[in-house]
Structure formats: structure tokens, C-alpha cells
Design goal:
With 350 residues, the protein is an alpha+beta fold. 39% of the residues lie in helices and 17% in strands. It folds into two domains: 212 residues, no CATH class; 117 residues, Endonuclease, Chain A (3-Layer(aba) Sandwich). A five-stranded mixed beta sheet has the order 12-11-10-9-13, sandwiched between helices.
Length: 350
Amino acid sequence: MTHNTPLSPRPLHHLAAGPRGVLTTAQLRSHGVTAAETTEQCRPGGPWRQLLPGVVLLHPGPPTSEERLHAVLLYAARDRGGAGVPAQPGTEAPARPAYPEVVITGLAALTLHGFASAPPLPSLDTLDVLVPRLRRLRSTGCARIVRTAALPTPEEITGVPVAPVARALADAVADLTDAGAVRRLLTEAVRGGHCEPAAVVRELNRARLLGRPHVVDAVDSLLAEGRAIAEHRLYRMVREHGLPDPVWNIDLRLPGGPHLGGLDAYWPDQAVAVELDTRAHRQAEPQEEDALWSEYTRKREHLERLGITVVYVTPKKLRESLEQQAAVVRTALMAAADREPAAYVVVLPR
């Protein structure tokens, strides 16, 4: 006599022990979990719940910050080449991003970058995620969709694709009306060495945020902060790399003639000057960038016709390669002996 013994339901608790605690319904199907089983598990009072459309939280309690991040990414990356579907046993993982064409941005991204002035992840009701402009997605639950014509190259932080600081700042500032909060974020970006002022201004300009008075005020503070930090690094370069002391922050004039321009450091005996290239003006339009660079070029050519060597350094180079910049200046100072004497110029405090 045979008995038709029903099969025991497949145990599903092992799925919740995964590293993220969230899966899409497509991923659950790849594990052999049917749509009916998923619906049953997500019933009121059940062990799972639907956190976002098509994304399931595999335990009954509230999601952790990490689970919310991955849930938002899974939601935004749905139908983009099987994002996040684990490889089957015995096969190599596909060579593709875990979350194609989606990037965490805004305040959540700044928190992941380590900003002390950004709110902690649990306090954020929504998490901003960048997607291509033509994606058919809507903001829902804890996922706020931010569309963009061009996705930035993300930085991976704890397995999460995160927008670069300058882009994340612009997306965060777009929703902030508190002038103090905007100023704190921009100041920390520069003071903490996360990025240069010029990069921030470019992103704010691209997002058309420079017409907002509280943003303009914050940018003024940002530029002043960035300049002060760059000047401090320039002082360090001279002191720590054994360069002779220059005269600092001076104006040059021809005797009885026109103003030649201001310089950050000048060695009169060698006729060598250093100028910080801190171009980060608020307009930042391409034609105005070109005009400003042309002005720099004319000034440099005029000084060099007078026998003065001008070394331009950027805040980024001073931050990333101080020793190399010191070597460039030292080379210019040593080459002075082989050049014709410079024209006589008047050095005035700036």
C-alpha cells in the first residue's frame, strides 16, 4: 500500500541569514521561492515583509541602515541585467557591477563618506538614489529617485556605490533651505580634504543652485576656506622642504608704471613667483572659464617677458603631491642663475 505523503515546505530561514537581509522577488525566484510562497511569507504578522515594490525584507523587525541602503539600490536597479542576483553554486560571479546604473547620493552619500555634519542614516526618512533620466521609476517608501543625464563614476563604500563628494553635495544642497546646514556641509568638504572648492562650485553650477542666496553665501565661505587651506599648505611646502623664504602675498608694479598683478609668493633675488590657481568663481560657465584662463595666461606671459618665472600650483596638487610641487619650485629657483637678469620691478604688500 502506498501513501502519498506531502512534501514538507522548503525551509526559507536560511535566506535571511545572508549578508544583506533583503532580496528582490526575482532573486527569491532564483532560490526556488515561488511568488505564492513570497506572498505567504509577507502576510501580516509573517516572517518577511515587502519593504519596497519588488524588494522583500527577510525578517519581521525594522530594517537596519545597511538593509535600507541595499533595498533602495535593489529597487532602483530592478530589470537592469539581473542586478544583485547571486551566482549559482559552482559558477563564477558575472563580471558586472552589483548595482548597474544606480548610485546613492545626497545626504546618505555624505554620511557614507564620513561627514560629521551629515545626519546619521537611521534619521533619514528617504535615501536618494541617482538613476539615468529615462528610467521608469517613481519615488516610494524610503527610496527617492533622482534622475540625471549622466551618472557619475561611483565610489564603492562598504559594498555600496556612492556618488563622489562634490556631486553628493549638490544633490543634498538642492533640498536644503537651512543656510547653516549648507555652510557646514560645504566647509567640511574642503576642511576635511574630501574635495576641492572648484569641484563643488562646478557641481552647484551644473545643478543651477548658485542663484539661491543662502547657497551663494555658503560658497563665499567655501572659497575663503579653500584659499586659506591652500595658503597654509603653501607655507608648509616652503618650510618642510627647505626652500628659501620668499616674500608673501605681494603686488608687483613697474617703476612708475602699471600694476603687474598679485602673487602669493615671490623670491626677488631669483625672480621666481608662485601663484595659487584657485579658479572656482561662482559663474563657472565654460566661456567665463576660458576668459579667466586667458587672463592668467596674459599675466604669466607679461611677467615672463620681464624675466620673472611664474609657477602655478593648484590646491589639489598641494594636497596630493606637496613634495613634487616643492621640487618644481626648487628647480625654478636653481635655474635662475642661468637666465638673463629680470627687469626691475617694485614689490608692494598686497
